[in-house]
Amino acid sequence: MIHSKYLNQVQAFLLSGFMSFIMSGIITFINLGFVDHFFVIWFHAWWIAFVIAFPTILLVFPFARKLAMKIASK
Known about the structure:
The chain has about 70 residues and is mainly α. Helices cover about 85% and strands about 0% of the residues. It is built from two helices and no strands. The protein has helices at about 5-30, 40-74. Helix 1 (about 5-30) crosses helix 2. It is elongated, with a radius of gyration of 16 Å.
């Protein structure tokens, strides 16, 4: 198991993986339909999205948490 001090990084990794997987699949389907090699195209799109999403979430997460705390406290 991974130590709890890495919770934010693990959470960002999982969140970016799930979100980029779902969104890339939906967008690939909207743009192309269910074509030959759909899953190969989807996986390629997902990998690119994930490589962008993971560091983005690491950078944005602290700001988003502070903003959510301000909104939720009202």
